[in-house]
Amino acid sequence: MDRQLPLGSAAGTANPRIPQLDGLRGVAVLMVVWAHSLGGVFPSNVGWWPAAWGWGIGLGSGGGYVGVQLFFVLSGFLITRLLQRELAATGRIRFSTFYLCRIRRLYPALMLTSGAYVCLALALPVPHSLGEIEGAVFRALTYTTNLHDWLHGIPDSLWLSHTWTLAVEEQFYLVWPLLFVLTAGRCYATPSRIAGLVIGLTLLFRAVAPAHISYEILRFDALMLGCLMGLHPKWRTGKILQGTGIGVVLVYLLFPPQPFSSRDYLLSAIGAAGFLQHALATNWMSSRVLCYFGRISYGLYLWHMLILRTGLHPICGIPLAVGISHLSFYHFEVRFMLKRETGPSPV
Question: What is the pLDDT of residue 52?
Answer without folding.
Answer: 54
